[in-house]
Q: What sequence folds into this?
């Protein structure tokens, strides 16, 4: 099938490359000419596992092409996936829909009769209906559907090729049939498919993110109680998660969630529910957000206490800048927020990350960065483990003890081996775990 994918960020680039890989003819479109030139040259503009290879093969097969023109997009196909960003508004919690709207305005007048515009962006419920109303003026024969994506950064290609479910929010049987054809290989592989109305599909996405964010904040709230009670949240999470009704996933306690989705999506969801008069139903999301933000403050506080009450004149080595491992994305990164706060309070901070340093430098130019773990920790009075890259689990604590001034580490992600670090002479501290349960570490 011929299709366009409008917006070549994480979602759009991955979707376009995967669609080309399963045999479709795809035109990727973006207003960013530099990004389009990079893609057309067969290079992915972002770090995402397996994406480079798919872009190369798509471009060389001729099935994956790129353009900056919405008029060209409208002429290329009758099926258009809209994958542009929906960030938080600069002056409030609601979603900023200006990019979605500008695609509709730019594409609408050129659409061929019968075109199907399919939103993949995460949007407030009611957006598809609003767009359909606008297209009724711009392109009377066009139709709107919503087909949310659930990909995680770091495994976005895998998640697109092997989704756990497909959700088709459609207003007609024709749109349903078209989208089923798009995803035929996934359907054949047995992926469950849910056909809904567009509003329900929009809500499936935000409800899923809200639930996952709530699970993370729940376990982090338990971490606070554990700290107060002298209990161990990692043991608690394992035992609680063993109940199949609860499940072990997304119960990893630590510094909390960040990234381009969860924080802004729960705020936009609460704002939209309030507009609809259903704000009370999701008021708990404000608390989920507060718990999450508090983890960053608590981590900074804990670090300050570990340093005897002040950061002034202290050197802190920071492990991690990306909002999560496997990604170079630093949008709303808890790690960078902590590193910045620690520096603002007077510490000399050196940050290591295996992938995200360019992006980190662009948003936090005042921090010092290095691609070398020992260099980040050289002469440090404290090491902060803030993003759980596998590289950090592979550190030899004895060797790293040789470069720091004081072997003191705070594991804000609860994944390092406390016993091994303790045995190598480190004072090992972690969020939500008393020193007594850290396997003999002093
Ligand atoms: C998320 C959703 O998982 C995905 O379905 C949606 O399409 C977009 O948002 P993503 O932002 O890529 O994907 O990351 P995810 O792996 O879900 O992690 C989100 C944040 O939660 C990260 O900062 C991660 O470190 C944190 N997290 C995750 C925890 O703190 N604890 C956990 O148990 C799980």
A:
């Amino acid at each position: 099938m011929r299709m366009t994918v409008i917006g070549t960020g994480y979602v759009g680039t991955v979707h376009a490359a995967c669609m080309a890989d399963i045999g479709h003819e795809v035109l990727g479109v973006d207003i960013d000419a530099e990004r389009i030139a990079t893609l057309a040259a067969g290079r992915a503009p972002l770090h995402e596992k397996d994406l480079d290879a798919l872009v190369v093969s798509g471009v060389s097969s001729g099935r994956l092409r790129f353009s900056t023109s919405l008029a060209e997009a409208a002429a290329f196909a009758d099926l258009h996936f809209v994958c542009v960003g929906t960030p938080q508004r600069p002056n409030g919690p609601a979603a900023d829909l200006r990019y979605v709207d500008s695609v509709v305005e730019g594409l609408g007048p050129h659409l061929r009769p019968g075109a199907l515009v399919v939103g993949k962006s995460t949007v407030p419920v009611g957006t598809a209906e609003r767009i359909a109303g606008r297209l009724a003026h711009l392109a009377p024969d066009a139709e709107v559907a919503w087909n949310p994506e659930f990909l995680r950064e770091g495994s976005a290609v895998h998640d697109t090729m092997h989704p756990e479910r497909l959700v088709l929010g459609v207003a007609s049987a024709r749109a349903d049939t078209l989208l089923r054809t798009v995803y035929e290989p996934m359907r054949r592989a047995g992926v469950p498919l849910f056909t809904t109305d567009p509003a329900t599909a929009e809500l499936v996405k935000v409800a899923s993110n809200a639930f996952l964010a709530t699970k993370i904040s729940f376990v982090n709230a338990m971490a606070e109680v554990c700290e107060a009670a002298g209990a161990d949240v990692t043991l608690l999470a394992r035992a609680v998660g063993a109940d199949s009704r609860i499940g072990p996933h997304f119960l990893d306690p630590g510094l909390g969630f960040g990234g381009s989705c969860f924080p802004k999506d729960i705020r936009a969801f609460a704002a939209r529910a309030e507009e609809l008069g259903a704000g009370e139903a999701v008021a708990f999301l404000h608390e989920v957000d507060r718990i999450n933000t508090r983890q960053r403050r608590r981590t900074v506080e804990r670090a300050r206490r570990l340093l005897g009450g002040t950061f002034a004149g202290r050197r802190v080595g920071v492990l991690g800048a990306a909002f999560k491992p496997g990604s170079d994305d630093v949008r709303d990164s808890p790690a960078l927020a902590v590193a910045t706060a620690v520096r603002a309070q007077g510490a000399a901070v050196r940050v290591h990350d295996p992938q995200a340093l360019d992006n980190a430098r662009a948003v936090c130019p005042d921090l010092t960065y290095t691609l070398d773990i020992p260099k980040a920790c050289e002469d440090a009075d404290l090491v902060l483990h803030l993003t759980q890259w596998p590289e950090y689990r592979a550190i030899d604590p004895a060797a790293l003890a040789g470069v720091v001034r004081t072997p003191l580490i705070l594991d804000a992600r609860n994944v390092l081996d406390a016993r091994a670090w303790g045995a190598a002479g480190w004072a090992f501290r972690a969020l939500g775990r008393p020193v007594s349960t850290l396997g003999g570490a002093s």
